[in-house]
Write a structure and sequence with these properties.
This protein is an alpha+beta fold and about 130 residues long. It has a single domain (about 30-130), classed as Nuclear Transport Factor 2, Chain: A, CATH 3.10.450.50. The protein has helices spanning about 5-20, 35-45, 110-130, and strands spanning about 50-60, 65-80, 85-95, 100-105. A four-stranded antiparallel β-sheet has the order 1-2-3-4. It is elongated and about 55 Å long.
C-alpha cells in the first residue's frame, strides 16, 4: 500500500488548487424526509417524467462502519426536455447489513439547477399558451 507523506499531501493540495479553478456551483438544499415523505416527494417528481433510468456505476462497502456508497448516473425524458445527472448516495445499514437505516444523497447541484430552470421555463411557456 502506498504511503502518503506530508510532502505528497501538500503537493496534491497544491495541484488540486491549480486544476480546480472553476467556481463551485451553489448547493441544492432539500428538507430532511422520513420514508413516507421521501416516497411522496418522489411520486410527484416522477409524474413529470416519461422515462427514468438509473445505473449504479460503482459501489463501496465498509463492513466495519456498516456504510455503503453508491455512484449513480441517471437519465430521463420529460416534456421540459432531457435530464441527466449523477449522484453519490451514502447508505447507513443495520448491524446485519440487510436494511437501510439512513440515506444521504449528493447530487450534481449545477445540473439540478439547470434542470429546475428548464422546468420553470416549460411551465411558464405552457401557462402562456393557455
Amino acid at each position: 500500500m502506498p504511503t502518503i507523506t506530508a510532502t505528497s499531501t501538500a503537493y496534491a493540495r497544491s495541484a488540486t488548487k491549480r486544476v480546480c479553478t472553476a467556481p463551485e456551483p451553489p448547493t441544492v438544499k432539500s428538507l430532511d424526509r422520513n420514508n413516507d415523505e421521501y416516497m411522496m416527494f418522489n411520486v410527484e417528481v416522477f409524474k413529470l417524467l416519461h422515462t427514468y433510468h438509473a445505473t449504479i456505476t460503482d459501489v463501496v462497502v465498509d463492513e466495519v462502519s456498516k456504510k455503503v456508497v453508491l455512484s449513480v448516473e441517471a437519465i430521463a425524458t420529460a416534456d421540459a426536455g432531457d435530464y441527466e445527472n449523477e449522484y453519490v448516495i451514502k447508505l447507513g445499514m443495520t448491524e446485519d447489513g440487510r436494511k437501510v437505516v439512513d440515506q444521504y444523497d449528493f447530487i450534481d447541484s449545477q445540473r439540478m439547477i439547470e434542470w429546475m430552470a428548464k422546468l420553470g421555463d416549460f411551465a411558464k411557456e405552457s401557462w402562456e399558451k393557455k
